[in-house]
Amino acid sequence: MRRVLSVASEAVPLVKTGGLADVVGALPEALSGQGWDMRVMIPAYRGVIDRLGRTTVVWSDPDIYGASAELHLGKIGAMHVMALDAPHLYDRAGGPYSDIHGDFGDNAERFAALCWAAAAVARDGAGDWKPDILHAHDWQGALAPAYLRYSGSSLPSLVTIHNIAFQGRVGAEKMGALRLPREAFHRDGYEFWGDISTLKAGLTSADAITTVSPRYADELMRGEYGQGLEGVIAARAGVVIGILNGIDAGVWNPEKDTDCIPFSANSLAAKSKNRKTLQAEFQLEKKIDGPLVILVSRLTAQKGIDLLPAAVEELVARGGALAVLGSGDAWAEDLVLGLAARFPGRVGVRIGYDEALSHRMFAGGDAVLVPSRFEPCGLTQLYGLRYGCLPLVAAVGGLADTVIGATPATLAAQAATGFVFHPVDALALRQATRRLCELYADRKTWTAMMKRAMKSELGWESSAARYAALYERLLAQ
């Protein structure tokens, strides 16, 4: 069996702040069916080793960015984990990247240490295990392929961009602290407008670059999406590949979901019962004739939260309602809370995040709103498809790749699985909301779309096969 080392800052079920963790946690099991043994290396944040239970130390370094470190090999579920135990870097209160005071000031060093260890294991092995491929994720893992290249190793590597908006940019004065060779500080190396970009270091060093959807791969070559790295992506276009994320079909399964009344595409009766439960949970009116739309999201400008007022006006005017779950920027939280105050009984808001509640929302909602200005892949719309909660999405990134918008042609072909709007502005979203409400009134067509959406291929099988094929191609090269 071929071996691959995956290096990332988070992985479900050990630590999660977003979709990156879901992908990193799902890939090992998906790839095992393709003949690949994947081990995941993450930092040993406080509590991680305890959750792994019994572990074995398979690698150590007496001086990794300030003090000694050990690599603990353990297992959680089907995933083999290599947790980098470096208390001076990771044993602290707060999340993976910040605490109540903001981002940790030494994040560059913290994740450089992770990458240094990953490159060492990729090059020399750990215990009796040595990978054939190194797979790094986002800026936190991107220095691993760079360290490999700078050391002269020929081991194949790739970097997956989950969100190019986060680039690991720090001042050039950290060059020595990050153990980066000065001779690579140039436009074709890791230099970025006079600073260091750890993501760029990986993009210019790895043998391949993947993104989490085909459309996002194309978008990143354009200035409006590339966040200043569009030239780097375009220059390496021949090795850039978009591979869609999947979802864990075991966790997100309406037929076996213990957080709701189970239902299926062939037995939708419980969907209406889940809807009533959701209405009560968000203190919405008992009688809602229009669609019950949900929004489960970070509340930020990227997610298009500022576009909501016009859409909500249209939705409520046509008899619908909105349930919101999320947290984020203060202005965005104030905006959704303001909508709830303006439309009592028609807009309900829960600030924060609750995984079980999100399951109940997809189970009870008629449609899920995802008006993102950019979205590398997105998982929310996939959950919506799985639960017959039809997505209304912006025509960007993975949203456009996964949702077939309702148009006269797609409806006639019995292919539509949701609603897609463009451009990403308030007018287009309002018009799409109007179309959604009109189609909701056509129960026969709506039900057919629900069933079609629920039968969409959303798991990891095809995506894992594409990753496996890419690994094989890199080895052959």
From TrEMBL:
InterPro entries: GS/SS, Starch_synth_cat_dom. Pathway: Glycan biosynthesis; glycogen biosynthesis. SUPFAM superfamilies: UDP-Glycosyltransferase/glycogen phosphorylase (SSF53756). CDD domains: GT5_Glycogen_synthase_DULL1-like (cd03791). ADP-alpha-D-glucose binds at residue 16. It catalyses: [(1->4)-alpha-D-glucosyl](n) + ADP-alpha-D-glucose = [(1->4)-alpha-D-glucosyl](n+1) + ADP + H(+). The keyword tRNA-binding does not apply. Its EC number is 2.4.1.21. Residues 3-234 form the Starch synthase catalytic domain. It comes from the Bacteria. GO terms for molecular function: alpha-1,4-glucan glucosyltransferase (ADP-glucose donor) activity; alpha-1,4-glucan glucosyltransferase (UDP-glucose donor) activity. The keyword Transferase applies. One of its GO terms (biological process) is glycogen biosynthetic process. It is an enzyme of class 2 (transferase). Keywords: Glycogen biosynthesis, Glycosyltransferase, Transferase. Synthesizes alpha-1,4-glucan chains using ADP-glucose. Belongs to the glycosyltransferase 1 family. Bacterial/plant glycogen synthase subfamily. HAMAP family: Glycogen_synth. This is Glycogen synthase. It comes from Rhodobacter viridis. The gene is glgA.
